[in-house]
Amino acid sequence: MLNRLNAKVQLGISLYLALMIMTILLAIALGLSTIFIGQTKMLREMGYSVIAFYAADAGIEKALVDRSNPNLNPDYYSDSLSNGATYQIIVTVGGTGDCSAINYCIKSIGTFKETRRAIEIGY
What we know:
Blueprint: H1 2-65, E1 79-80, E2 86-93, E3 104-112, E4 115-122
Antiparallel strand pairs: 1-2, 2-3, 3-4
């Protein structure tokens, strides 16, 4: 009788240990998957940031084509690129507001997905 009781106790302990080990392994797997998903999202958004920056750069280049007499209308230089990125350019006359440049200040805001990057130049 004592032998049977001892065997049942050992089976109960084995089941408990197996359950604890499975719980620990599940917690580790869930923790690692959370970290990897966060890293993947961050890397994707970094790529979006680069595209938004180059969209802003394209806007600056477009405004510099007319640098001798730029259009001061804020919507004049706004455009979208073939990859889905957009840019918006704001041109202000030098010496007014925050613009301390001699001629003009050009601020270009590039947007891709929900990421925005800006470049500002003065000449």
